[in-house]
Amino acid sequence: MNAAIGAVRGAATSSVLWAILGGLVIGALITLAAGHDPVAVYGEILAGAVVGPNLAETIARAVPLVGMTLVAAIPLRGGMVNLGGDGQLVLGGLVAAVVALYLPAPGEVRLAAAILAAMAVSGAYAALAAWGEVRFGVPLLISTLLLSYPAQGVSSYLARFPLRDPATGMPETYRVEEAARLPVLVPGTPITWGLVLLLLVIAAVVFTDRRGTAGYELRLRGLNPRFVAYGGIDLGRQTVRTLFASGAVAGLVGAMLVLGDQFRFTDNALLSPAYTWSGLMAALLAMGEPIGAVCAGLFFAALQTGGFAMERATEVPRVLTLVLQAVIILLLAMRHGLGRPGLRRR
């Protein structure tokens, strides 16, 4: 079985590399057709992502993006899809803000409690979608997506009315005091201790995937769920447990953004960067493999950060980087789809 998993992993790596190469070639052709030098354009993207202070910006952007990549990758490893990342992210951010603002405790205690509460609430909300599939047969793809909307709606209402800070004129809560914020990790940069929390999460996910019984069972489910069920594993319990872990990571990302960057919960502020959907694309690119998902998330964060510098230096719109992301995923999907004998015959 380990040999089979290794063969699948090797084939997946090859497919991803070919998809990235193909996406870069297509992006170069698009750039040429627009009358620009693709070498110069790609050079500006690279420099804008990793040269000088731009590297710190890329790392700061990569923290939430990689986090949301893991949100999608954890269930995807077992053949499940969590489309409710937006709702879980928003819910975690709101809970973190409320606990940090109103818990009667010292600042450090409020900070820790806010993070743990955000993870618990978002994890439970994701597990609710899993319970809907296990108990009532609602497909996880549908239940996670639809439950995202009530979370966003309730969070928007609370930020606009009961919890709103009237002094700002914006739909946002009061500002979290400095004692309850995530401290800056690297002075002079936007990198906070959220990076350390993310590294701990990555280590836990990779260890569980490679060495833990739960990770092994989840990988087997991704290869053949019937075999796993025949082996005596409770698929329903595994689904709930996996979605709770996925949602908890989304809640952590929401807490890190609110307590380490924005310092208050603002309606729609967590959703506008589209971390959830960029993370989903990165997880699909890595096919749920944790280390590959982290690398794909870093790659997409670098593309997005470099896109701003490219737009300033070459007048090529940064939407090119979004096109590259989409093309890479499409090429990956085409490679796997066209590789099935049934599709070739049809």
Protein described:
With 346 residues, the protein is mainly alpha-helical. Helix content is 76%, strand content 0%. It has 14 helices and no strands. The chain has helices spanning 2-33, 38-50, 54-76, 85-102, 107-136, 140-160, 194-211, 213-223, 225-230, 235-262, 275-286, 290-314, 319-338, 341-345. Helix 2 (38-50) packs across helix 12 (290-314) and helix 7 (194-211) crosses helix 8. Mean pLDDT is 91; it is low at 338-346.
Layout of strands and helices, then pairs:
Blueprint: H1 2-33, H2 38-50, H3 54-76, H4 85-102, H5 107-136, H6 140-160, H7 194-211, H8 213-223, H9 225-230, H10 235-262, H11 275-286, H12 290-314, H13 319-338, H14 341-345
Helix pairs in contact: 1-2, 1-13, 2-3, 2-12, 3-7, 3-10, 3-11, 3-12, 4-5, 4-6, 4-10, 5-6, 5-10, 7-8, 11-12, 11-13, 12-13
- Termini gap: 32 Å
Unreliably modeled segments = 338-346
Count of beta strands = 0
Strand count, sense and barrel status of the largest sheet are: none
State which percent range the strand residues make up: under 5%
Evaluate the radius of gyration.
21 Å
Tally of DSSP helical segments: 14
Mean pLDDT: 91
Shape: globular
| Percent in helix | over 70%
- Helix/strand order: HHHHHHHHHHHHHH
SSE-based structural type: mainly alpha
